[in-house]
Amino acid sequence: MKMYRIGVIGAGARGETFARQLYAGMERATLFGICDRDADRLGKFVDYCELKGARTFTDSAEFFRQPDLDAVIITTPDFTHRDVALQAMRAGKDIYLEKPVAPTSEQCREIIRCQRETGRVAFVGFNLRAAAQSERLKDIVSSGILGQILHVEGLEQLSVAHSASFMRRFHRKRENTGGLLNHKCCHDLDRILWLIGHERRVVKVASFAGLNVFLPRKAPAKTCHECPAGIYQACPYKDTAGFVFPVHGDRPIHHQSSDIYGADLCVYNDDKSVFDNQTVILEWDHGVRGNFNVQLFQSRGCRETRIWGEKGCLQAVDGKIRTILSATGDEIDHAVASNGAGGHGGTDPKMLGRFVAALDGGDSGDSGLSQGMAVTLVAEKAERSALSGQVQAIANEEYF
Fold it and tell me: What residues does 175 pair with on adjacent strands?
């Protein structure tokens, strides 16, 4: 069977995960090389990740021209996804596109048009689907034990350090990502749409959101390194590693002048346009309704899902799943398998395996661009609703 030579473009935290996995060796895939336009960062990336002998490129056109490069994992910033994806597919390369597909639904459509023109495989990296709990949720919902589904509810709660990381990097500007809902919570929205079924479509979106905590008037200084020592030591939002490259390092590798990789900018900066909390209400074309909340500032991150059906309700909290039957009140606890080893709770190796399967079959299945665009479309409408105060309708043709 074919051994795929896969390259990674984007020397960041996600690129680190995939490059390490491919370099370490997989049954059907190996690391071809790394591409990043920043030569200094690329050198540090290769050294830190211990990718001795890995091929490196700073020119994406040269990278994509390589005849022995079979496929590319795109881990560049969101606002570059369209251009990089188009360039790769037009060069004849299949792509694994990290979520979200793009900051806007129109950019998603451009990528879809190119994929249809070139016939390349375009696989979207919504790795939350590969989590053991998500797979178990899908099985339970599909079993019919809940009967007719009526309502779905989701929550993503971010830890203090995680939430702070989005307020100082390129994510702080809505135009770069489509907003925190599209960039970070696209995992959760995708899982909700996947659980309900992609054959059904959200037709109405309402949202309420705001910037209530990370207010510019609270800023003691422009950057962490300029902050008075006493304030810096007590600040829960100080710049730390863990959610940026290097993922397991002591300190992030920054360029103080870079708006792409970010610097130790104070989280209370006046150069942001994203919300720091948001509530979304959804309605599907077959009458199912739902809501989703994203909340920051907590001691630890967690996700919760609840689904109500005619015959019972489901609760998924802290890795545990329970259904409560309507007719009898019986409570059923559902076993959840271990996620296994590897990045993102073991989901990254599974996603790479699914990408290889997609390359074998020439089809991304339900992990394709159309499903990814649906998430961005819902997030985009939620942003518009929050900014305008109006319920947003989604016409069928907008799904492309």
Answer: none
